[in-house]
Design goal:
16% strand; six-stranded mixed sheet
Length: 391
């Protein structure tokens, strides 16, 4: 047999194996995470290698299982040609009979600074709004092994502790829907080979080459390593181990939080300082960090060094004095010797968000029926909800 024919034969075998491996990854994800298959799911698709491969893999699975698949593209309008790409993507999906929707970001919501984090928040709000409108409970995202390694290094460089360094979860709760990530153990190179084998063209996002973004710098750094894929696998494995430690630590954290914290539906926490001082420092600081997230309505935890300084100040706070940090205020409660931590009066209110068709999230902290003028329940966004959220 001519060498060229042998080469073609083995390329065909490799293509079949890659397809089967990725198909098995999708099937295993559904088997492990669903007692009963959903009737409808959604997938966020940008047109890049990752999300396009996931969309077609899900389409194959959904057709076999009679599940309705919605592909959603966010046109962020941050670079020239993004709208054209979204329309070109729509043509691909029409051709392949995949339901597809383009959601455009309002120009007024495009941030001038902190672009990555702000755009992510707007993007997730649009995706969430689409899912709740169409009664879709599962949104699929194309995060893969390389993303996990990049995220680890980004957070490491920014000073994250064990929480931020833990591997992404396959399934996580976002308001009323579940975010599903079936490709966390899959390499990007395998997704690319799959698309090439299926003769599916993808779009290259020029912003991935922009050196002002930390992610792009880290991606280039990883790609230039001599054993890049092996290094990334080891990073991801380490982040998995940290995730297991974090789960154990969370249980200890909640047991200690029960001893030192009280909560009222106004969104205020009462911190028993004597009990707090008995808790190991790292655990105590994490409890305080979660309290600040809940009170402030912020999404991310405060920076570690700022948190340390705040803790130092509140532990020596005198009666009549106050200390503010991260949109929160602390003072000694007039009815006890405990510390009252509440929302800072002049802190700007967060934008109102939809929770579902009938309910809104006010100031990032309260649930309120759209037919009512007053909040009726505090909306917990951290694991503190496990001990204070009365359903």
């Amino acid at each position: 047999m001519p060498i060229v024919n042998i080469f073609r034969y083995w390329m065909k075998v490799v293509k079949i194996c890659k397809h089967k491996m990725l198909k098995n990854a999708i099937e295993t994800f559904f088997k492990n995470n669903f007692d009963e298959l959903p009737k409808t799911i959604a997938v966020a698709v940008s047109g890049g290698i990752d999300s396009l491969a996931l969309t077609f893999l899900l389409d194959e699975f959904c057709r076999a299982k009679k599940i309705k698949l919605h592909a959603i593209t966010i046109d962020h309008k941050m670079r020239k040609g993004s709208s054209d790409e979204a329309l070109a993507l729509a043509k691909i999906f029409v051709k392949n009979k995949i339901a597809h929707e383009i959601l455009a970001i309002d120009a007024a919501k495009i941030p001038a600074k902190n672009i990555e984090a702000s755009l992510r928040e707007v993007r997730y709000d649009l995706l969430y709004g689409y899912c709740t409108k169409h009664k879709i409970e599962h949104l699929f995202l194309a995060h893969h092994q390389n993303d996990c390694a990049e995220n680890f290094l980004i957070r490491l460089f920014r000073g994250s502790q064990i929480d931020g360094l833990s591997k992404m979860k396959e399934v996580s709760q976002f308001k009323k829907i579940k975010l599903c990530r079936p490709l966390l153990d899959v390499k990007k190179s395998d997704l690319q080979k799959y698309l090439q084998g299926q003769k599916i063209k993808w779009f290259e996002d020029e912003s991935n080459l922009d050196k002002k973004f930390l992610r792009n710098k880290i991606r280039k750094f990883l790609m230039n390593l001599e054993e890049s894929e092996l290094v990334q696998e080891r990073i991801v494995k380490f982040s998995e181990n940290l995730g297991e430690i974090k789960e154990f630590e969370d249980e200890i954290l909640l047991e200690n939080a029960k001893k030192c914290l009280k909560f009222n539906q106004k969104g205020e926490f009462l911190l028993n300082l004597e009990e707090y001082k008995k808790i190991p420092t790292k655990i105590a600081q994490k409890i305080l960090s979660l309290v600040l997230i809940e009170i402030s309505g912020n999404i991310y935890k405060p920076r570690f060094y700022g948190l340390q300084n705040f803790e130092k100040e509140i532990l020596k706070l005198e009666k009549g004095k106050k200390k503010n940090f991260y949109g929160c205020m602390a003072k000694i409660d007039k009815n006890s010797k405990n510390l009252l931590i509440y929302r800072e009066e002049n802190s700007p209110q967060k934008l109102t968000q939809n929770f579902d068709e009938k309910t809104q999230i006010i100031d990032g902290r309260f649930l309120q029926k759209k037919s009512m003028n007053k909040p009726y329940k505090f909306y917990f966004r951290t694991i503190l909800g496990r001990i204070f959220d009365s359903k």
